[in-house]
Structures are given as structure tokens and as C-alpha cells.
Design a protein that fits this description.
Blueprint (H helix, E strand, L loop, with lengths): L2 H6 L1 H12 L3 H12 L7 H5 L6 H6 L2 H13 L4 H15 L3 E9 L2 E9 L2 E9 L5 H4 L2 H17 L4 E9 L4 E4 L5
Parallel strand pairs: 3-4
Antiparallel strand pairs: 1-2, 2-3, 4-5
Helix pairs in contact: 3-6
């Protein structure tokens, strides 16, 4: 799936959320703004498509996260993995990273967070595992998938410098491993 396809389905995604939960666009904005507080959002992808800088447009490119936030607000069911990813994005934002997209998904796999630090695009795998040591959490197979998916991303968005990182939640705090995946 290309970023173009995600953009073309923008109105459909918003329309489904509004219809499914019988909410107004104003309510939707409020939900997304409350959950995005503390996130340093990058406008690289919306700018690619000459879209206005609105919170809805940013979340459209993070379709999985968009759906999760809406369902979480109405269903109050929590997914530990998604909670850790959202908290991880806030952690990275606090370090000065701009969040480009979350849950970038193509047929071959998914990248949890794509962020930007200065002119370097960083692909971050987020893990929340309380049992295993961090070295045991991310397998070689998973790393290969991330590398493959990042190729698809770099075909859509011009990137010269790349980094492949891991962000591990140990139950109380995050541990950030720069260039862990290469």
C-alpha cells in the first residue's frame, strides 16, 4: 500500500469513524487532540500531499493508531502494545524527535514508529516485554521485515540518512537503543 492510497482513503476513514460512533467532526478533533498532546508531530507526509496541517490529516497516515484511539475512547478496551507505542512516541518526542507516522503498514509488515531527528529518518521497533531481556525480544526475522518495510517507506518519502532503533519498555521506563537493528 502506498502513501497515496492512504491519502485517497482519508475521507472514508473519517466518515467510518463518525458514522460508527455517531460523533461529530468536532468531537473527533477533540479526541485526537487530547491523545496527541505531548507528541512532536512531523508534517513531512501531509506536506508531500499539500494537505493542511490538521491533527486529522496527521492521524490518517497512522491509520492503525487512528482507529485504536477512536475505539479506545468509546470502548475503553486497552491494548498493551498500542498503549506502549503511544507512550513510546511521547517519550521520543520528549527527546526532540518529530513523529512522522506510527504503525506504517505494508503487505510485508509494519514499523511501529517512523520519526525524524534533524535530517535522519529513524525506524523504531517498540517492545513492551516484562519477561525477556531486551536482546531476546527482537528477532533477526523481525529485523529483516523492518528493513524490507523501510524500503517501501523510502520509496514514497525522500530519505537520505536512515537509522534503525529499538525502544523497550521494561515495566517502569523506556530504554532507547540507537541503531540497534543494523
Amino acid at each position: 500500500m502506498t502513501l497515496r492510497n492512504i491519502y485517497l482513503s482519508r475521507d472514508k476513514i473519517i466518515g467510518v469513524a463518525l458514522k460508527k460512533y455517531s460523533i461529530s467532526l468536532l468531537d473527533l478533533r477533540s479526541i485526537l487532540q487530547n491523545y496527541s498532546k505531548g507528541l512532536n508531530l512531523s508534517w513531512v507526509i501531509p506536506d508531500n500531499f499539500k494537505m493542511e496541517h490538521s491533527i486529522e490529516n496527521w492521524f490518517i497516515f497512522s491509520k492503525t493508531l487512528f482507529n485504536y484511539l477512536i475505539e479506545n475512547f468509546f470502548c475503553k478496551k486497552f491494548s498493551f502494545g498500542r498503549e506502549v507505542e503511544l507512550a513510546g512516541a511521547k517519550f521520543l518526542s520528549s527527546l526532540g524527535f518529530e513523529i512522522v507516522v506510527m504503525n506504517y503498514r505494508v503487505k510485508g509488515g509494519e514499523i511501529d514508529i517512523v520519526c525524524k531527528e534533524n535530517d535522519v529518518f529513524r525506524f523504531v521497533e517498540v517492545k513492551g516485554n516484562l519477561v525477556f531481556r531486551s536482546e531476546e525480544i527482537i528477532t533477526r526475522r523481525k529485523i529483516n521485515k523492518i528493513l524490507k518495510v523501510s524500503e517501501d517507506f523510502t520509496n514514497e518519502v525522500f530519505c537520505q540518512k536512515l537509522g534503525y532503533d529499538a525502544l523497550i519498555f521494561d515495566g517502569s521506563d523506556f530504554v532507547y537503543y540507537r541503531d540497534y537493528l543494523v
